[in-house]
């Protein structure tokens, strides 16, 4: 969606700083700005030309946006898309961005992709697009032992074992999001210990005594338990055992707060250091863009030859 240019520029630097503070090692990993590699947009266009509109119309996140505008999606059609997009101001970028996501992954021939449960459908789309491209454009000249040589692998998902989907502190039926108007709905990397305790202390729970994991009947408590497990790097079952002695909601929230504060402390310390050295962060991004472009350009040469543009 369109954003203020100055805000967006700073947000990119802030995100890179946060990733480095969380432990991303630029020696082992290539950290770069997507906008510095034009091949992302080039490959997305190639993919647009082979991706059926119906595939995108089935995307759950798109349907949720349409539902917010009171647009029925059961019998999705191109006319419906055209009429409501013009009327409601829904942008093509919002509808089409899963194709760009597929290009982000496949441009580097990604095989394993860390995703949350809410992104699994988009990863499946990337797999479908990879399969469609290979089927259409892997020509006979690339045959090996009678089989076509695929250009793009079909990526598999890596789903975190705990906190697969962190929910809002205010409304545990919704995903925690930085776009939520309420800052008390989320935990930010820069939140002070006092603010973290305040937010978790006001998190939506219930009046049932004790700590149990039941996302359907106790979504608030279950969400906090998932956060606790993730911060302690343990499974939900172990988290339940560690909290089995707690009977009051207040004591449970205090324990969750302690776990979050302890886990974020080293990250926040590194964040402060990196914020004072923005030149280093920009240098990492510059070097990353060079490395990413080398890989991306090689992939695009393969793609252009396959489709006949070279």
Count of alpha/pi helices: 12
CATH topology of the largest domain: Rossmann fold
Largest sheet: 2 strands, parallel
Cα-atom radius of gyration:
22 Å
Strand residue content: under 5%
Average the pLDDT over all residues and give the rounded result.
90
- Would you report the number of β strands? 2
Global morphology: globular
- Identify the CATH class of the largest domain: Alpha Beta
Order of strands, widest sheet: 1-2
CATH superfamily of the largest domain: HUPs
Tally of discrete structural domains: 2
Instruction: Please provide the ordered H/E string of secondary-structure elements.
Output: HHHHHHEHEHHHHH
Helix/strand/pairing class, anyone?
mainly alpha
- What is the CATH architecture descriptor of the largest domain? 3-Layer(aba) Sandwich
What is the first-to-last residue Cα distance?
33 Å
Helix content: 55-70%
Low-confidence stretches: none
Textual characterization of the structure:
- The chain is globular.
- It has 310 residues and is mainly α.
- It has twelve helices and two strands.
- It folds into two domains: 26-159 and 278-307, HUPs (Rossmann fold, 3-Layer(aba) Sandwich), CATH 3.40.50; 183-274, Tyrosyl-Transfer RNA Synthetase (Orthogonal Bundle).
- Helix 9 crosses helix 11.
- The protein has a two-stranded parallel sheet.
What's a concise summary of this model?
The chain is mainly α and 310 residues long. The chain contains twelve helices and two strands.
């Amino acid at each position: 969606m369109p954003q203020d240019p100055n805000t967006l520029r700073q947000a990119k630097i802030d995100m890179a700083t946060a990733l480095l503070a969380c432990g991303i090692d630029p020696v082992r990993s290539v950290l770069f700005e997507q906008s510095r590699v034009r091949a992302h947009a080039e490959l997305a266009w190639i993919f647009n030309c082979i991706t059926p509109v119906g595939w995108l119309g089935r995307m759950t996140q798109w349907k949720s946006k349409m539902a917010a505008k009171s647009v029925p999606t059961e019998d999705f059609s191109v006319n419906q898309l055209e009429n409501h997009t013009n009327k409601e101001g829904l942008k093509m970028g919002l509808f089409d961005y899963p194709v760009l996501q597929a290009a982000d992954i496949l441009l580097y021939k990604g095989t394993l992709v860390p995703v949350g449960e809410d992104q699994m459908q988009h990863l499946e789309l990337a797999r479908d697009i990879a399969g469609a491209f290979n089927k259409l454009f892997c020509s006979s000249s690339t045959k090996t032992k009678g089989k076509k040589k695929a250009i793009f692998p079909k990526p598999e998902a890596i789903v975190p074992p705990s906190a697969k989907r962190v929910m809002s502190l205010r409304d545990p039926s919704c995903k925690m999001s930085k776009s939520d108007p309420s800052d008390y709905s989320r935990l930010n990397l820069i939140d002070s210990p006092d603010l973290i305790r305040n937010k978790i202390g006001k998190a939506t729970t219930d009046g049932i005594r004790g700590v149990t994991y039941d996302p359907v009947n106790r979504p608030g408590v279950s969400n906090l338990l998932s956060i606790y497990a993730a911060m302690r790097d343990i499974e939900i079952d172990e988290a339940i055992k560690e909290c089995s002695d707690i009977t009051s909601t207040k004591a449970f929230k205090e324990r969750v707060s302690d776990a979050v504060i302890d886990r974020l402390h080293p990250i926040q310390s590194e964040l402060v250091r990196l914020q004072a050295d923005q030149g280093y962060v920009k240098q990492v991004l510059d070097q990353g863009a060079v490395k990413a472009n080398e890989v991306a350009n090689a992939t695009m040469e393969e793609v252009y030859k396959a489709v006949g543009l070279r």
